[in-house]
Structure formats: structure tokens, C-alpha cells
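User: Sequence in, structure out. Go.
Assistant: Echoing your sequence, followed by the C-alpha cells.
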Amino acid sequence: MALGAAPSSALPLPVVVLGIPVHPVTMEQALDWIAARIAAGGPPALVATVNLDFLRLAHLDAELHRILFHADLVLADGFPVVWWAKHVGDPLPGRVAGSDLTPLLAARAARDGFSLFLLGGAAGVAEQAAQALTARHEGLRVAGILAPDAAALAAPAAIISAVRAAKPGAVLVALGAPKQERLIVRCQASWAAPVAIGVGASLDFVVGVQVRAPLAWQRCYLEWAWRLLRSPRRLGWRYVLDLGFLSGRLLRQWRPASTALGRAAVGLPLPRFVDRAAAELWIDSSAHQALPPVVVPSDGLAFDGVQLAALAGLRRRVSAMSLAGLSARQCAQLQHGRWERFFSWTKG
């Protein structure tokens, strides 16, 4: 994963959802970006598809949070992610589900001539998925298939060698979160594929090991209920934890901060932006500031969605960042997203 490698002109400023920047793109825009990144080559890119369980795990797991914070493209895979963005007044255009992305990317790969490597899944699933996708999309090239065991994941030299030899355009990693994201970050610089995507259970859906909810359920935002009915033992406790996490975030959303972290001095002011384009210009013009830059929000100004996204965008470009002069509510907003992992700050 190359920090800040994604061209700023190609992706809009992210929407911050519970501390994780999520890109406000449609499925077609996501496919266009992935195809363009593969064609351009350059530093390897990480694409993450984020649902409510990802958000919960990221709050518990600082390493996963950092991976998602710095990922090149983060997609809203799950209605709760889309709902939260709308709830805080900074909406996303809609859901971009990883289970939809995989077959659509296969179609784009067949059209544009790049290849895919299928990594993960249970024994035989990746092979069956390759057969199914190549049957559906004439001209699709599956450069490689691998279902690594625990030992191979712990010492991934063989995985890296297999991907390097195959030279795919994109690696689809189906290991579930956070295992797949950790493997990508650990290996992608060595396996040298232009794009790697964590696709979770997508290969299972391709071959029918798991069955997608009917369209009527999906349109009513009830796909989670369909999956729970089909796999109550596997998903029941996870959904309880996810619901508890979401409820807790709602209750704590505006709770005053109890502490302030770090030390900082007066430096770069944070304005109120008229739109996302203005925030992107501010990030570009601020990139030359001495490290770490210090941002002092306007007195009494609560962070809105675009301001938080601007802070995240600038932070992705620098090695460290300190904030000074924050109100209690501003501190609470940063703590709400667990951004003490990325910033230090003091109250005003």
C-alpha cells in the first residue's frame, strides 16, 4: 500500500464514517478507478470493501484501523455504512458491495484485457470460481489460483512467489477481515501486482457456496437478515456485537471529551470549506507545510464532514500531525473515530 499514491484528481475527497475515510463513489466509478490503476501500474494499491463489522473491528484493532485509514480506495460495502454517512450529514452515493464488485470486475477484466489472481477461500472454491467466471466472461484470464493454509499465511514467501510469477492485474484476496487486509499490506510490495482487493466471501457467492439474498431483500436493506437466517450460528454473535457497537457509537456521538492528548503550537488554520473541491485544494496547498503541520480550528467551530475529510486527507500525506486549540466537542468527535491513533491534540 502506497500512502497517498491514488491520484487526487481520480477520487473524490472521502467521507469519514466512524473514523474511517470512505470514498463517495458509485460502482462504475470504482471499476473505472481500478481499471485505470491497473493500466497505469505504479505503486501497488489496496482496495478495501468496508461494512459495519469492519468498522467495529477497526475500533478494536489499531493495525486494521491504520490499514483502512491509509487504503487507496475504500468502498461502502454495507447499508449501515451508507446510513451513518447520511446520519452525520455527509452522504455517500450508495452501497458498493464487494459481492457485486467481484463479478463486475471480472467482466471489466475480460473487456480491458487484464488478468485476475484468486487468492483464498476454502479448498476448491477459488478453482470453481475461476471456472465459473471464465465461463461467464469470454476472454477473461485468471492468472493464478491459490488457497493457502495457515502455515502459508504465516510465512507467505510461497504466496508472493506465486503472485509474482502470474503477473496479474489484480489480486482478489478472499480471507475475511482483518486477515486479508493484513496479508495484502504484508505482501503487495513484493508481489508487485498493481491492485489488491479484499473480497471476503465473494468467491463463495460466485460458486454458490453462499447464496445472495433475493433482490427484493437487498432493495429493502435486509440482506443481513437473509444471511443471518441462512447462517445463524456463524453470524448470530457477530451481528449482536455489530449492533451493540453501532448503538454505542450513537449514544457516545456527542459525549464531551474527558481528556486531550499530545502537545501542539499555533500553525495552519482550518477553514470552513464551501464544498469538497475547496477542501481538496486546501490539502494540495498545505502539502508543503513543515512536518508535522499544526491545525488550529476556528474558535467554536465544530468539525463538519468535509472538515474531517480534509484533516484525513492531509494526514495521509504527512508523517505526523498535531492539532491545537480544540473545543471539548471537537475533541469528542476525534475520539469518537479513535483518531488518537493518527493525531495528537490539545484543548483550547
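User: And one key feature?
Assistant: Confidence is low (pLDDT under 50) at residues 1-9, 256-266.
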